[in-house]
Amino acid sequence: MSLIRHQAHIRRKRVAKKPRKTSVPFDSLDALFAENKKDQEKKKEQGERLARLRKEADIRAELQQTSSSLQQMSTEVESNIKELQADEHLFTIQDNVEVEEFGYVFEPITEPLTYHAYIASAADLRSPFKLVYECMASTDEDELGALLWSQAILVLAINLNHDVPDAICQWLFSVVSTHSNHHIVQGAFMNLFTLAVADHHPNFTQITYGLPKAMLCRSRLLPVKTKWQVTVSHFFGSFRMFGFQESKRALNTKKKAAGHASSSTWSVPFPTVNMEHVTMLFVLALRTDKLRPSEHDLCACCVFFLRMQFEDILRPQLCELSSYCMEVLLDAFSPREWRRQYARLLILRIAGTKEGFFQSSAGWLSIARRLPRTERGTQLTTGLAIYILQYRSHDEQPTEDFVQTKVSDEPIQFPVQIDWVLDVVSTCVDSLTEKYAATDAREVVPPYELLCTKIALMDLALQAFLNHLKPSDMSLILQKLDRLALANKATVVVQWHEMKTLVTLMHRKYSAENLRIGRDHSPKAKQVLFIDD
Q1: Where are the alpha helices (DSSP H) in 87-181?
Q2: DSSP secondary-structure letter at 251?
Q3: What is the dihedral of CA 381, 385, 386, 389, to 10 degrees?
Q4: What is the DSSP letter of 216?
Q5: What is the pTM of this model?
Q6: What is the DSSP string of 156-213?
Q7: CA dist., res. 131 & res. 153, Å (int)
Q8: pLDDT of 84-112, one tens digit each?
C-alpha cells in the first residue's frame, strides 16, 4: 500500500514539471489585426536585416575583387616597367652633345649707321655738275629723295654728253650702304642699277635673274655711262659697317666665334635694307663685269656668302640673294684655275681638318644642301660629299695619326670620275651594312643621325651622274640600303622613319625604270663633270 502511494507521488511531481500550455484569447478582431501587424513588422525587419547583410557581403566581395584587379594591374605595370627599362636605350638615342659654335660673319653692332653728307670741293663747284654737288652736300631728306628719284644726275650727264663722275658714283654707293631712309636708299640704288645695265640691253633678263622684279621696274633705261669701277674693297667696307669684323684673309682661317643666339643680343637692329641693296649691287656688278675680282678674292667672297646663309638674323630674302651671289662667284672662276686649285680649296675651307665651318657630318650636309644647283655648284657638291664620306664622316672622332695619314691638303683629284664615286659610295654602304644590319637593334642602337647623314651625302654624290649610272650597280646599292633599314625596323622611332624615307626617295630617283625617263642621253652638264681648257 505504501509502495502504491509512493509511485503516485512521483507521478504527481512529473506532471507538475511539464509547462502548461497557455493560449491568449483574442477578445476582438482588432486584437487579431494588431497581432498580425506585429508579425509582419518582424518579418519586414528580418528581411531588411537580411538585405543589409547581403549588401555588405556584395560590397566586401566587390572590394576584394577590385583589390585583386588593382594588384594584378600593379603587377602588370611593374612588369611593363621592367621590360621598358630593359629597352630604355632604344628611347634615349639623342645623347646630350656639345653645341657646336659657329663663326658668324656679323657681330652685333652697338651704334646705328651714320650717314656723312658729301663735302664738295672747289673743283666740284666749278664743274658742270655744280648743282648736283650742292644737293649732295645737303642733309634734307626731301631734297635728296627728289634728286635721286628724278634721276637728274643721269639726265644731266646725257645732256652734257659726259660720263657720270667717279665722286658721284662713290657717293651713291655710300648712300646705299649707310643711309637710314629706305626711300633714299632705293633711289640711290636705282641710279647705280641704271648705270650698271646701260650697256646690256639685250641681256637685261639674264642680268636681273633672281632679283626682286618689283624693285627693278623702269619705264626705260637711259644711255648713260661712267668710268667708275667698283671693287671688292668697296663691298667689304660696307660689310664692316654692318658688323663684319674680319679681313678677307681671316675668312680663310678656322675661327669659331661665340656668335649670337638670337636677334635679342643686338642692341641695334641689323641694317637689313642696306644689306639687301648692297648684295643686289654685288650680283649686278659681277653679272655686268663691272666687278672683276681676283681668283683669291672670289674664293674669299664664296666663303663669306656661304657663311652668311647661316646667320639667324637675316631675312629669307637676303639669304636667297646670297645664294645667287654664290652662283655668280662660282661661275666667275676660270675653268683651269677652278679645276686645278679652287674647287679643292673651297672643299678644304668648308670641311677641312685645319679649317672648316663645322666638325660634324650634319653641319657639312647642311652646307652641301645650300650650294647652288648650277654646273659649278653641282661639281662642288659632288666633291664635298665624296670628301666627307671618305675622310670626315666617321663613327668615332678621328685621331691625329689618322688625320695626318689620310687627310691631305688636296683631298680630291679632279675631274671626278663616276667609277670613283661609285667605289666610295659602295664602300660606305658595305661598311654600314656589315656593322649595323647584322646586329639586333634592341641590343645595339644604331646611330640613326649618322646613318641618315651618310645616306643623304650618297644621294648628293650620285645625283651628278644620274644619266650614267648602271641599273645593276644602283640595284645592288639599294638592296643593301633596304637590308640596313629593315634590320632596324623593330626600333620604331622617328629617326628610323627618317632613314627609311631617305632610302625610299633614293629608290624613286635611282631605280632602273626611272634612271633615264625624260632625260637626254648625253646632257652637257652631266656628261663631263670637269672640262679641261
Answers
A1: 122-125, 130-136, 141-149, 152-159, 166-178
A2: G
A3: 180
A4: G
A5: 0.73
A6: HHHHTT-PBPHHHHHHHHHHHHH---HHHHHHHHHHHHHHHHTT-STTHHHHTTTS-G
A7: 10
A8: 665 555 445 444 444 455 567 788 888 88
